[in-house]
Amino acid sequence: GGCDKNMPGGMMGMLRANVPAIYIYGGTILPGRYKGQDLNIVSVFEAVGQYSAGKMSDDDFCQIERRAIPGNGSCGGMYTANTMSSAFEALGMSLPYASTMANVEDEIVGMVKRASTVLVDAVKKNLKPRDIVTRQSIENAVAVIMAIGGSTNAVLHFLAIAHAAEVDWTIDDFERVRRRVPVLCDLKPSGRYLAIDLHRAGGIPAVMKVLLDAGLLAEVYLRMTRGQKSLVIEAEEVAGSIGAESVVDLSAFELVVLCASEEEAAAHEAVLADIDQASKGRTVWRPAPAAPVLA
Predict the structure, then answer these.
(1) What is the three-class DSSP state of 288?
(2) Partner residues linked to 183 by β-bridges
């Protein structure tokens, strides 16, 4: 899959057919560059506004349009495609690290080869999508969506995915998870970084490691990985592979916790303390942007 609509559609088809399957993401786009800044598709939208207001030169406007989309891949921020790919990884239907790879890098070719091996193993074991996609695994996927600040389109898509999996999941469950899981990642469109930056900082496994350490994920055993491993075992492997210094934080990638208000931050106090400890004291609390007022 590789876009907003075919990804949830593909997952729904896999669940309805319920034969051994694995989800392979086409990958995110790499950022463009201009005057030392990363560009993505929204850079063009913003440039149009600045140019129309007379705040940008013809040359800068032209260069941003030419450089913002440098190649293949889904839109680079945590928009719907990258949100759904991240959720599918957390769900257990794609391989660890697979959801944030760049489309044009060799790494994704190796991932496809590994996925084919895992799929053959699933066929031999008769491990089917509905064995993996349960209420617990959907809860984990939604927790990750909240933590990465994912697209609200995921609400519509996961209601349909849960229906295809014959799992009882309602819009009230999204609100329940939202209230206990803070936003951890400073990703576009609301933040500063792109999906490929998250990948280089440890990817979705690193986010899940932070959430698991804070007691915000349910431990599950059935996942599309190299054999049958619990989420806890996978998390420990992640900790060993990315090192204690990185969790979801590299020198250029800050672990940011967004809460709607100081009251909400206070309600999350214990969770935030656990997350801060897991990230070596590098968390930064910020108020979330105010919701727009609709006329």
Answers:
(1) coil
(2) 258
Residues near 153 by Cβ (< 8 Å), separated by ≥ 6? 4, 80, 83
Cβ neighbourhood burial of 192 (10 Å; 0-12, 13-18, 19+)? middle
Q: Is the peptide bond before 189 cis (omega within 30 degrees of 0)?
A: yes
Six-digit token string for 290: 């105010």
Q: What is the DSSP letter of 257?
A: E
Question: Exposed (0-12), middle (13-18) or buried (19+): which is 41, by Cβ within 10 Å?
Answer: middle
DSSP for residue 99: G
pLDDT tens-digit readout, 214-247 = 888 887 656 666 444 455 555 555 544 443 333 3
pTM: 0.80
DSSP letters, 39-50, are: E-HHHHHHHHHH
Q: How far apart are CA 123 and CA 144, in angstroms?
A: 28
**Residue 65: partners with Cβ closer than 8 Å, 6 or more residues away:** 44, 47
- Residue 37's contacts (CB-CB under 8 Å, 6 or more residues apart) are none
Strand order across the 255-259 sheet: 183-185, 255-259, 283-287
Q: What would the pLDDT profile of 178-192 be if each residue is shown by its tens digit?
A: 988 988 888 888 888
**Closest to 2 in 3D by CA, of 76, 57, 58:** 76
Residue found by looking up tokens 């004291």 in the block: 281
Q: How far is CA 96 from CA 16, 35, 238, 282, in A?
A: 24, 34, 9, 24
Residue from 211, 188, 194, 279 nearest 242 by CA: 279
